[in-house]
Amino acid sequence: MRVGCPKEIKNHEYRVGLTPGSVREYVAHGHDVIVETGAGAGIGADDGAYKAAGAKIVDTAAKVFAQSDMIVKVKEPQPVEWAQLRDGQILYTYLHLAPDPAQTKGLVESGVTAIAYETVTDGRGGLPLLAPMSEVAGRLAIQAGATALQKANGGRGVLLGGGPGVLPGKVAIIGGGVVGLQSAKMAVGLGADVTILDRSIPRLRELDNIFNGRVHTRFSTIEALEEEVFSADIVVGAVLIPGAAAPKLVTREMLSGMKKGAVIVDVAIDQGGCFETSRATTHSEPTYEIDGVIHYCVANMPGAVPVTSAHALNNATLFHGLQLADKGLKALVDDPHLRNGLNVHKGRITNKAVADALGYEMAEPQAVLKVA
Fold it and tell me: Where is 344: in which H helix or E strand?
């Protein structure tokens, strides 16, 4: 198979779909790899490194899309990219379709087979291709929040770790999954007073055992959520419903009860965000203010640390990518966990959460693949 990797074009996105090490693996499996010049510049991998790994370098993304049977990316295709996708081609990347009707329409009209990293599952009920970027984003959330909290950046002017004789800052984390856990680890490491809210008693019990009293765990009710949000210096939105739009848990009205200069970090923004006032921002302009509350809603947070995140992502995506390259669509037939990643196929939506969110009729993946 001809596997293509274009350079990412989303604002300040420095990650790359294939590292030179991953290219070498595809080549070892007998595949041809086509890489756009400069695709790996953000992680310090020049064209020479890709050539040494066995890739063919082309000078435009258009050539990558035109010559490849499978496109491997990081972020969802932008309009100029989805216009170049075609029937019979495989797209393997993050998609986050539920809050993005324009992209969904573009993929449906292209006829492409689109596999979303974020809905591929594993035997333990996890999301193995989403997890590494959730880990990075969770850790970055506290760094970003602490920076935004500085007075010169519009924040309250609170140091999360406090100081001798001065209380530490308070961090409220909504959601106790991968993002929530990693955010809590970073916040605790900085000396903050941390509370995690979640609706799963077993998960709260796990978190209580992990932190051994160093964080507060609290069952998430409307009352509990209000109390924690109102008292926090940083609120991290870390709620995920796989494939679906994130629930709006913090309303516009609730902002009036928050401290002036407090910071919201919405890690769920890829799925539409879990704060009613959230809208996607970029690394160029990461924050905005509403009712005195600073919002940090960057939709590709791990892109800020591409060396770490690109390698972590490739480690997670390589196995399934090789299966797709080796077997084509049969890989989806053979592996139910990879099949869960199928979101669009030949003009049909094959993920229930996406179909429900955007008003499409869902096609069962197994049915459309048999037809294929």
Answer: strand 342-345
Tokens of 356: 């429900």
CA distances, 208 to each of 157, 176, 201 (Å): 30, 11, 10
Percent composition of the chain: helix, strand, coil (DSSP 3-state, to 5): 40, 20, 40
The angle subtended at Cα 121 by Cα 4 and Cα 249, nearest 5°, is 105
Q: List the one residue out of 83, 75, 67 whose CA is nearest residue 33.
A: 67
Tell me how many degrees the CA angle 90-95-99 measures, rounded to the nearest 5.
Answer: 140
Rounded CA separation 360/64 (Å): 30
Length of the chain: 372
Q: How many CB atoms lie within 10 A of CB 85?
A: 22
User: Strands 348-349 and 342-345, how do they pair?
Assistant: antiparallel
> What is the rounded distance in angstroms from the CA atom of residue 341 to the CA atom of residue 358?
17
**Nearest alpha-carbon partner for 299 in 18, 75, 17:** 75
**Tokens read off for 35:** 């890489």
335-350 pLDDT per residue, tens: 999 999 999 999 999 9
> Residue 233 catalytic?
no
270 is catalytic: yes
- Say how far residue 250 (Cα) sits from the centre of its chain: 20
Q: Which of 100, 193, 270, 295 is catalytic?
A: 270
Q: pLDDT tens digit string along 305-361?
A: 999 999 999 999 999 999 999 999 999 999 999 999 999 999 999 999 999 999 999
Among the listed residues 96, 295, 320, 345, the single catalytic one is: 96
